[in-house]
Amino acid sequence: MTMNVEEEVGRLKEEMQRLGQLQPDGSYKVKFGVLFNDDRCANIFEALVGTLRAAKRRKVVKYEGELLLQGVHDNVEITLLPPAASTTD
Q: Which residues, in sequence order, are CB contacts of 87 under 8 Å at separation 6+?
């Protein structure tokens, strides 16, 4: 069963809330390596990197760089933006 991009981005938000650290502004931060190496994420996302890029284009998440690679970018912090920020920007 393949999910559409909107569904994948929605699932990504849920997983980032599960794995990430809640920030005072309502955002969540999680390192790429934590997401990539999580068993549940591995089962959900065929292409985690592609889902992250789609979420970034939709201004759901933000992170440095374009393409994240396992190992190389494990310490890159990915921020799940709070709902208010993604509508007002």
A: none
